[in-house]
Each structure stands twice: as structure tokens, then as C-alpha cells.
């Protein structure tokens, strides 16, 4: 998969993209990341990318021209069309289903906003998937872009060592994951459930399934309701 990230702050991505699973995914040639500074695509001699809002009001709005220029130029660099993601708190709220669908694409372009956000024509004049990472407002789209990239890349087949572990993860089966334990068997008086030490794999599977259902009922009954709808 090729992932292009359009941002005013490309330096913010360096450590995140080059550590842990995202680094390994690149080493395995399963993903390539391409960072593009939106400012480089401004026609303005001062490389200005924002301006005051028409009608007045606080803050600055990202102008359409640098972003359209950047999207056109970056799109032309690859040999396939990108699925374009516009990051905005007004978009569809990110969930594991959206992440799964995105992980099947061959090319993604992630467009990060800043300041007061985008000129409306960026949203309406481009074929974009508008995504929010939650009902709160961040300073810019860089952290949301990192969230999406991380969630998507780990689902690309071959990225995680044992893809088996994905199957039981929270949200994969519209359920939360069962409780996990590791050594020591007892810590500050709290014991690992005996069943997990029994070596009886079918009983352990049964226990985990029961715990996953219970945990989901207690914490996220909405997930089970969605399942039965
Ligand atoms: C300060 S926000 C702009 C918010 C905008 N004025 C509004 O009220 O909808 C600046 C940029 O941060 C990003 N952003 C902020 N919160 C976000 C969220 N919850 N999900 C995705 N992107 C977000 C977007 O790219 C947005 O254009």
C-alpha cells in the first residue's frame, strides 16, 4: 500500500512512522509513506496557505488552491488512484469497519487540516471520505492521520507476525476482547484464573468467549445491539 500524507507539519510524523509496527511494515515492503508539505504547493510568493474567513470570525481558513494543487500533483506521482481522506471533526466517526475497508485499498491519501479548517470547496469539490477520530476538536489533522495510518497498516496482511491475534481483538467481531494475563501467576494477591493455566485449550476458548461477551455487555452493549440489528 502507498500512503501519501498532505500536511503543513511533515516533521511531526517522523518518529511515529519509523518506530514499531509501522517501521516493520515498511521494512517488509508492505507499505510506503510519502509526506508532502502543502505549503510547497502554494502559488503565493510567500507560500501562504491560509486566509481570513469570508463573513468575518476568528482564525484562518485553509485556502483551496494549495490543497487542490497538492492533491493533483501527488496523485499524478503514483500509478493508481488514491482513496482520499479529509480529516475533519465533522466527518464520519472512525471505527474498525472503516479501518478494515481502508486496509484493502492499494493507495490512500490523507489530507490534514489546521487552523480553523478547510475552505468548504475542498470538501465539496473533491471526491473525499471525510473522517473524524472522535467528538472533540484537535489543533490539526496530524494526530488523526497518525491514528488512521496506525490502525490501517496493522491490518495489512503480513504486517503483524501472527495475524491470528487480530481475530480476537476488540471490535474485530463486534465485541471487546477477553481479559488477558501474563506472568507472574500471582501479583499483589491477584491471581490469574486457574483455567488459563490448565492447558485445556477448548475450555480456555470457551472461557474467553464467555468473558468477551460479558465484558461487551457490561461496557459496550451498543456493539451487541448493532450485531443483532
Ligand atoms: C481546529 S480544527 C478545525 C475545526 C473546525 N473549525 C470545526 O469546528 O469543525 C483544525 C483541523 O484539525 C483536524 N481535526 C481536528 N479535530 C479533529 C477530529 N476530531 N477528527 C479529525 N480531524 C480533526 C482537521 O483536519 C481540522 O481541519
UniProtKB/TrEMBL annotation:
Q: Which domain of life is it from?
A: Bacteria
Keyword terms of this UniProt record: Cytoplasm, Methyltransferase, S-adenosyl-L-methionine, Transferase, tRNA processing
| Gene Ontology process terms (BP) | tRNA N1-guanine methylation
Please state the protein's primary subcellular location: cytoplasm
Q: GO CC: one term?
A: cytosol
The chain positions of domain tRNA methyltransferase TRMD/TRM10-type read: 1-226
Catalytic activity, as annotated: guanosine(37) in tRNA + S-adenosyl-L-methionine = N(1)-methylguanosine(37) in tRNA + S-adenosyl-L-homocysteine + H(+)
Q: Where in the cell is it found?
A: Cytoplasm
What are the binding positions for S-adenosyl-L-methionine in this chain? Answer: 113, 133-138
Kindly give the InterPro entries that the UniProt entry links to this protein.
Answer: Alpha/beta_knot_MTases (IPR029028), tRNA_m1G_MeTrfase_C_sf (IPR023148), tRNA_m1G_MeTrfase_TrmD (IPR002649), tRNA_m1G_MTases_N (IPR029026), tRNA_MeTrfase_TRMD/TRM10 (IPR016009)
Q: Which residues form a coiled coil?
A: none
Return one GO MF term.
Answer: tRNA (guanine(37)-N1)-methyltransferase activity
* Pfam families given in the database record: tRNA_m1G_MT
EC number per UniProt: 2.1.1.228
Q: Which top EC class applies here? A: transferase
Subunit info here reads:
Homodimer.
NCBIfam families, alphabetically? PRK00026.1 (NF000648), trmD (TIGR00088)
- Chain's role: Specifically methylates guanosine-37 in various tRNAs.
Entry's family note: Belongs to the RNA methyltransferase TrmD family.
Name-wise, this protein is tRNA (guanine-N(1)-)-methyltransferase
Source species taxonomy: Bacteria, Pseudomonadati, Planctomycetota, Candidatus Brocadiia, Candidatus Brocadiales
